[in-house]
From TrEMBL:
Protein name, per record: Amidohydrolase family protein
Organism: Luethyella okanaganae
Protein family per UniProt: Belongs to the metallo-dependent hydrolases superfamily.
Pfam families xref list: Amidohydro_2 (PF04909)
Boundaries of every Amidohydrolase-related domain copy: 65-295
InterPro entries found in the cross-reference section: Amidohydro-rel (IPR006680), Metal_Hydrolase (IPR032466), Metallo-dep_Lactonases (IPR052350)
Phylogenetic lineage: Bacteria, Bacillati, Actinomycetota, Actinomycetes, Micrococcales
Amino acid sequence: MEIVDAQVHLNMVGLQAGLVAMDAAGIDALVIDEFWGFDEHGRPLPNYPLSGGSVRHTSPLGEEAVARHPDRFAYVTRVQPDDPGLEEVIATVRERPGRLALRILPFVPKPPSAGESPENLAAVAAFAEELTGGRYDRYFALAERHSVPVFLQVNGIGIPGRLDAIEHIARHHPQLTVVIDHLGVAMPGSRAARPGRFAQFEEVATLARFPNVALKWGHATRLSEEPYPYQDVRTALHRIVEAFGAERIMWASDWTIDLDWSSWAESFSYIRDDEMLSQDDRAAILGGTVRRLLGWPASPAP
């Protein structure tokens, strides 16, 4: 079974170390999200300035990885909604080898360890208003027109997902593939007991009624209060598969962020070895879905 990871910040370890770790864990391919943090205006790095005050994101490691190992790497990019060349930039996203999708995430002023701080809650709420209040209307319309999938994070550490924003976008852009990042639920920042933590998936499951919405199954082992193979997380996954179907669920490790929660191999092997899921469902979640939704066919090693 091919194992494809839908999100890794590979720049945090470097290309060569990443390849060694991939081989050790049994990862066949992955999608790079090159992220170095935020600049002083809350815009993702790396970027360079444009006239008018906007910036444009760059992916030097993603480009290098695809050039050297096109069979193993693809990457996502970011675009600011106020980019003066927005139409051309989004129209040409997929023209560059291995650059397959867009990703949008909120800026929160406090470190993730601050969790559900008033500042972070307010920031995510303001971000949701931007997504639905007009600032991103042209952005999503262009992505829809040019068949560019969008990964969208509307939650955070201790911050419940603003799934109303996902619903708004899915309803107004029915041909746009929207992938809910990081489960769409409040992600724990500690191993303290979290009663009701899986109840959040009931709201996530309601979005399955939109055929253009998919779910990135990432950071799931953070929710577990059991040792490997995380049976409580498996049970939650079964419920989500019932709602979305495995063809709209893609596994992601976010390995460089979740090192303290599970090993890279553990983050997917509890799914691979789950006999309550069919072989086809496991193959879809662990690689088939991300390849199909991003239009990224497997290719032989050069």
